[in-house]
Amino acid sequence: MTARTARTVVAALVLAAGLAVAGCGAGDEPAPGDTGGGRVTVFAAASLTESFTRIGKDFEAANPGSKVVLNVAGSSALANQINQGAPATCSPPPPSRQ
């Protein structure tokens, strides 16, 4: 993994975690026994499958009760899905090519 890809992956993980936390209740008190887990749906470019699979497993391990669902495909296919209303918690941009 290149340094640029690693930075992209880390940024995407931070974004995903932030979005997950922001959408978890808007200040409401958690229900008794609630571990704070939830579902995070990540739409990512197919070229990032390996990285996001590992990040998802790490995120789930660090956040008991959470579930990371990956939807990987080509960028235009992902854009079409999102434009048609597919629920994405996080949709990081594909890595830029140089």
Based on the model shown, name its key terms.
98 residues, alpha+beta, D-Maltodextrin-Binding Protein, domain 2, two-stranded parallel sheet, 2 strands, 14% strand
Summarize the structure in short.
The chain is of the alpha+beta class and 98 residues long. Helix content is 44%, strand content 14%.
3D architecture notes:
With 98 residues, the chain is α+β, with helices and mostly antiparallel strands. It has one domain: D-Maltodextrin-Binding Protein, domain 2, CATH 3.40.190.10. Helix content is 44%, strand content 14%. The chain has a two-stranded parallel sheet with strand order 1-2. Helix 1 (3-22) packs across helix 2. The relative contact order is 0.24.
